[in-house]
Model the fold of this input.
Amino acid sequence: MRVSKMLTHTLKEDPQEAEVMSHKLMIRAGMLRRVSSGIYNYLPLGWKVIRKVMDIIREEMNAIEGQELLMPAMNPRELWEETGRWEEMGDNLFRLKDRWGRDYCLGMTHEEVITDIARKEIQSYKDLPIMLYQIQTKFRDEPRPRAGVMRGREFIMKDAYSFHDSDESLDEKYRDNYRAYWRIFARCGMETVPVKADPGPIGGTDNHEFMVLSPVGEDTVFLCECGNGANKEMAYFKDEEKDPPVRSKESSREKIHTPGVSTIEKLCKSLKISADRFMKAIVYIADGKPIMAIVRGDRDINQVKLRRGLGVKTLAMANDDEILKFTGGHLGFSGPVGMDPSVVVADPEIKYMVDTICGANEKDYHFRNVNPGTDFTVGKYIQIRDAVEGDKCPECGKVLDAKRSIELGHIFKLGRKYSNDMKATFLDDKSERKTFIMGCYGIGVTRIVAAVIETHNDKNGIIWPISIAPYECLVMPVMYNDDEQRGISEEIYKKLKEKGIDVAYDDRDSRPGFKFKDADLIGYPLRVIVGKKAIKDGLVELKLRDEKEAQMVKIEEVVDMIIDIIKVEKTKLMSFSDRFEECPC
Ligand SMILES: [Zn+2]
Done:
């Protein structure tokens, strides 16, 4: 491709709209333009990168017997009603009506549509297992689109779905996907960490998120040297085992007047005591029944752990009316004193608290000198607080490492959740009707691109892994209007093209400094500079984007050298086997 003919408009300055590096660089390098909040044009350079990522994904999905199809972005309400997700997805789902007043949504995921295909097209156990996938635009009505394509309202995803007649068959396909995911990300130049995650509204049992560590990530993962890793929601840790606490002096419970002091911050301020001396009591409605959950004042309740620990399906914070009915007090003044132990759940840390402070279940009042066992009884001690820096691995006891991360992929064992709801069945070997067992496997395609840039850049621009760079190589005469430089450049460009190298040729008659800056910003992995002095000695300059020094190469050897380098670089990306660990489940 001749750069003079490319649709490239690079920018010197960081755009105001962009906060994170990947967003800034995608705009500056002329890859991405905003159309509306969370909605973008992928300009040719950006689209080329996305296409290369898609190709890698297709190769790896096809290698594990995935079959590509394409489902509609617009889905009828009736299908989503069958699983209850028309309601459940709430405001995140884009909804629209046709001219007859019929309801549709723009798909953010396709379990309903694919399960509909399965129940119509797959008749027999002989057709199983089967895995179908698509690469498609998805929609999500984000309240706060941010970070460019990292969290947009319209984005490209690969989603795959598998159908099985046994759990063993699903386990096998899950492991295949786990391996394929690792390969996909490695080939895109990304080292990912698979962590255990909560299935959330998609449902199902085992599932893993593939995370790439990055300070701009929205998620936190907790990792251990032993290989154990989980996202924040699922980060369990070893509960501290201590001796029972000794109360310093004979103290008895005392009611204190705390007008308007309804938060931990206000309590700390008005009583001049740190938050870890209080108990935080929050009332939840769990499967329709109220319960009180208690953690130390400086901790956060982890709703996923609470929901799992209680073994309930739905969990939501109670409103003021519900709290009043349940405790007799108002929001911000709840506490376990006087509550029936069967409705009180506490984090094990509470066991060791001495002369603590909690709400008195009465507006504007707290208790001080409250002690577990003496003043209240806990029905169930379960770990319900978020992990924090310093917590220890439940497997090996070493300290967990908390890291910011970006989620690139998520794989789920769905089981029969969707096939049950949608009555999707097949005939087994005894001609009996059985419900499909399903798996689902997603990858954020556009998010990969952002994450790669986020982890591969310097002050001058993007440093692409060769596998997904918009062009593998750039040929550039220092002075385009010099006949000799131009002639040699054209020749090298032509030869590289003939050899199947994805090559760009900077044939613009611009200042060399300007062209060098563009080349760094766009991040061509390889650059051939044809300059006046060197060609006198029959040499050109060959430079790798991620190396400081260029090497001088004989003109007639440069093409073969480039071919070799590309081969070596791609092999490097593929050879991740020493780091790879098989799926643990
Ligand atoms: Zn460990």
